[in-house]
Write a structure and sequence with these properties.
The chain is of the alpha/beta class. It has a single domain (2-284), classed as Divalent-metal-dependent TIM barrel enzymes (TIM Barrel), CATH 3.20.20. The chain contains ten helices and ten strands. The strands form two sheets. It has an eight-stranded parallel sheet with strand order 5-4-3-2-1-10-7-6. The longest helix has 20 residues, at 265-284.
C-alpha cells in the first residue's frame, strides 16, 4: 500500500504542470557548460543559439542568474530542465545554497529538476556511512521543492560521494519522497571502468524512478576520454544506452554534457544536434 501511494503521488507530480517539460519524447537540452569556453556572455545570446539549433532547453548552475535565464528561455519558448545543484554532506558545512527557499517560487510548475552533485571531503565515494546525513539533507530539499512541483535527483559523478547510478537508487530508496528519483550520466558511468555494472543491470535498477540522464561524445583516445560533441562514429553506443532506457519506459529529458569543449557553441552544438537527430530517427524505427 505504501508503495502504491508513493507511485500515485509521483504520477500526480509528473502529470501536472511539472510534467509538461516531458510532453516531448526525450527532450534534448544543453548543459550550461556548453557556453563556458567560447560562448557569448549574455544569457539571451546563449539561449538564442540553442533555439536556432533546435534544442528544447538549457540547465542552470547553482541558481546563478536564475531569473534572467528563465526570462530568456520563456522568450524563446524553451525549458529549464535542470539546475546543477551542489550538496555537501559533511558536518559543519553549509549543505546547499541557502538561497534555495527564495528561488523555488521562480521554478514553480516548470518541470525543473534539482540535479544534485553530492560531495564529501571525509568519506570515500559510495560510502554508505554518509547515508543518514545525506538522506536528511535530501528530504529537506525534496520537501521544500515539492510544493513548487520541482523534483530532485542525485547526480552521479566520478570521484564524488554520489559516484554511480546505483548510488542514486540507494538514496532514492531511503529518501522515499515522490519528487525524489534517480539519474544516469553516460560519461561518469563509463569513467567507473571495471567497477561499472553492466548496462542491462543499471537500467533495470535505475529506470523505474529515473528523472534525467545525459550523454556525450568522447575524443576516442581512451575508453573514458575527454568529453566531446556527439560523434557519428559512436552512434552505436548512444543507441544502445538510450534504447535500453526507452525500452524500460524512460521518455524524460536527455542532457548534452559539454564540459571543457573549447570550440564555438555554434559549431560544436550543431554537430551534436546533427548526430542527435540521426539517433532519434534510428530509435523511431
Amino acid at each position: 500500500m505504501k508503495l502504491l501511494c508513493g507511485m500515485l503521488m509521483l504520477l500526480a507530480v509528473m502529470s501536472g504542470p511539472a510534467g509538461a517539460a516531458e510532453a516531448l519524447d526525450n527532450p534534448f537540452f544543453a548543459f550550461k557548460n556548453s557556453m563556458e569556453m567560447a560562448g557569448p556572455a549574455s544569457v539571451e545570446d546563449q539561449v538564442a543559439i540553442l533555439a536556432e539549433i533546435g534544442f528544447d532547453g538549457f540547465d542552470n548552475r547553482d541558481l546563478q542568474g536564475l531569473q534572467e535565464q528563465l526570462n530568456a528561455l520563456d522568450k524563446r519558448g524553451l525549458k529549464l530542465f535542470t539546475v546543477y545543484f551542489s550538496v555537501r554532506i559533511d558536518e559543519g558545512e553549509e549543505p546547499f545554497n541557502p538561497r534555495l527557499p527564495e528561488m523555488l517560487p521562480l521554478l514553480k510548475d516548470r518541470g525543473t529538476i534539482l540535479w544534485c552533485n553530492t560531495a564529501s571531503k571525509k568519506l570515500k565515494p559510495s560510502d554508505a556511512a554518509g547515508d543518514e546525513r545525506a538522506v536528511s539533507i535530501f528530504r529537506r530539499i525534496a520537501d521544500m521543492a515539492g510544493p513548487f512541483s520541482v523534483r530532485v535527483a542525485p547526480y552521479p559523478h566520478i570521484g564524488l560521494w554520489v559516484e554511480s547510478p546505483e548510488d542514486t537508487v540507494r538514496l532514492a530508496d531511503k529518501v522515499n519522497r515522490p519528487n525524489f528519483g534517480t539519474s544516469f550520466n553516460l560519461f561518469h558511468w563509463r569513467a567507473l571502468g571495471d567497477r561499472k555494472r553492466p548496462l542491462e543491470e543499471v537500467v533495470r535498477r535505475v529506470a523505474p524512478r529515473m528523472m534525467v540522464m545525459s550523454i556525450n561524445g568522447n575524443d576516442g583516445t581512451t575508453a573514458v576520454a575527454g568529453i566531446s560533441p556527439l560523434q557519428e562514429k559512436q552512434m552505436d553506443e548512444y543507441f544502445d544506452v538510450l534504447s535500453a532506457f526507452r525500452i524500460a519506459g524512460y521518455r524524460g529529458p536527455v542532457g548534452l554534457q559539454c564540459y571543457r569543449i573549447s570550440s564555438d557553441p555554434n559549431v560544436h552544438l550543431r554537430q551534436s544536434m546533427a548526430v542527435w537527430k540521426k539517433l532519434k530517427e534510428r530509435l523511431a524505427k
